[in-house]
Amino acid sequence: MQVTETLNEGLKRGYAITVTAAELDAKVNEKLVEAQPEVEMKGFRKGKVPMALLKKQFGQRLIGEAMQETIDGAMNKHFEESGDRPAMQPDVKMTNEDWKEGDDVNVEMSYEALPEIPEVDLSGVELEKLVSKQTTQRLTKRWPTSRRPRRISKPAKTVPQQKMVIRLSSILLARLTAKPLTAAQATTTR
User: What is the mean pLDDT of residues 97-126?
Assistant: First the structure.
């Protein structure tokens, strides 16, 4: 993997990242070896599927994953080494759009770095605590407005226990016997 600087003016940074085909292939093979013991395929025992067959079936999917992981790893490694902190998510573009398996991957990364903020010596700064002096006359004058009466909530209407029991028993009876309620039962339940 090769990282070369393409832009460095002010806070703007640009880099070209090249991932070789050999690195990408090694990453794909590593993922296949890791997954091989868990793969079950018709005609093979669990974990005994040949590597060539795994690569043929899952290779394309794993190439994309491996490419993403390698580029992300290169970006993170660059940020750790350089100490840059991007202001936003870096803009990453693949430059070789006609890429096919076996070619090197070329990616351009550009971002704006956060400026370095120097440490400020605060030992010479003095703070003054401001205190508001309240008189009892001012406090008593504001007292009534802060103690406004709150809305009083009314209790919910309660249903007498007798009506509730009758309604529940008639509903249960109707469900158990699978008969609809009669008009007399319906009026007593409400």
Answer: 87
Closest CA to 16 of 32, 4, 29: 4
Q: Which pair of tokens denotes residue 110?
A: 């550009």
Tokens of 86: 């991007």
Question: Which residue is it, tokens 């002096």?
Answer: 133
Looking at the whole model, is its pTM more than 0.85?
A: no
First to last CA, the chain: 79
Number of C-beta neighbours around residue 107 at 10 A = 20
As a whole number of angstroms, the distance between CA 110 and CA 124 comes to: 40
- Contacts of residue 46, defined as CB under 8 A and 6 or more positions apart, other chains included, come to 37, 38, 39, 40
